[in-house]
Amino acid sequence: MRQGPLLAVDVGNTSTVLGLTNDALQLTHTWRIRTNRDLLPDDFALTLKGLMDLSEVATPPCAVLSSVAPPVGQNLKLALERHFGVRTFEVTAENLHDVTVELDDPRAIGADRLANLFGAERYLADREFVIVVDFGTSTNFDVIGRGRRFLGGVLATGAQVSADALFARAAKLPRVNLEAPPSALGKNTVHALQSGLVFGYAEMVDGLVRRLKTEVSGDALAVATGGFSRTVEGVCREIDVFDDTLTLRGLVELWATR
Ligand SMILES: Nc1ncnc2c1ncn2[C@@H]1O[C@H](COP(=O)(O)OP(=O)(O)OP(=O)(O)O)[C@@H](O)[C@H]1O
Ligand SMILES: CC(C)(CO)[C@@H](O)C(=O)NCCC(=O)O
Ligand SMILES: [K+]
After folding, report:
1. Is pTM beyond 0.90 here?
2. Which residues contact ligand 2 via a Cβ below 6 A?
3. pLDDT, tens digit (0-9, with 9 covering 90-100), for 34-80
4. Do 99 and 116 form a contact (C-beta atoms < 8 A)?
5. Angstrom distances, CA of residue 13 to CA of 112, 144, 177
6. DSSP 3-state assignment of 1?
7. Residue nearest to atom 15 of ligand 2 (CA)
8. b/e for 76-108, b at 16 or more Cβ within 10 A?
9. Which protein residue has the closest C-alpha to ligand 1 atom 6?
10. Which of 29, 87, 127, 154 has CA 20 to 30 A from 170's CA?
11. Which domains does the chain have, with CATH numbers?
């Protein structure tokens, strides 16, 4: 097994999450920055140096990077290699020969979903399948089987994106925080909106998890991750486990098994 320290970077469409491990590959620091498509390699170098300096840590010799925003991933990789001499492993289906991506076109899979496959492995010990529900810009359902199988899943509009679309189109609707209201029956505009946006969203998630569990017809565990998962904790009934750092730890596991 390889040793840390390691930098793990997950470039999403909205946020980029970075994690630093110790020698034993346990996460010791995490940072979250906006994914800015306009930044160039030297901009990223300054950001990376700023984060490391703020936390008073040294840049590690190696990094693992998943990106679903291609130019950002490429520019970050260049920054890591040019400015810090960090050897960077980029997650792609082609780079992972031990993973079976059961999609029509395996190369189309998002790198974050491959990271989630590795993050799910720890839950596979006593289950046949794990359904990772990753609440980000989109909400992904990644169905993972033993033996590093990616069976497929669902891509749904993210909770914040669907809320923003509604606020933009309805003149009298205020922007509300995505938090659960006291009851489904709203007595004012804010609670009624929160009912639709949070309870409605949670029902969609529960319904899809139920459908997926039926379709795989095996013992399946549903694990939620991503920012919005905290909001639906206690609201979604079909989710068994909440795991904030599943994607980052998945990246670390992925790198460790290369
Ligand atoms: N601490 C939090 N508590 C409650 N809700 C949160 C929290 N952090 C984020 N969210 C909400 O969850 C949404 C998704 O969270 P997350 O930050 O994981 O995804 P993202 O960074 O927007 O997506 P991507 O990974 O695609 O870039 C956010 O848009 C926000 O509305
Ligand atoms: C679905 C997103 C946007 C989620 O981040 C990402 O995983 C992605 O761009 N995927 C490519 C398409 C696919 O995974 O089928
Ligand atoms: K993500």
Report:
1. yes
2. 12-13, 68, 108-110, 112-113, 136, 138, 140, 155
3. 999 999 999 999 999 999 999 999 999 999 999 999 999 999 999 99
4. no
5. 11, 23, 21
6. coil
7. 109
8. bbbbbeebbebebbbbebeebeebbbeeeeeee
9. 227
10. 154
11. 6-90 (3.30.420.40), 93-160+188-256 (3.30.420.40)
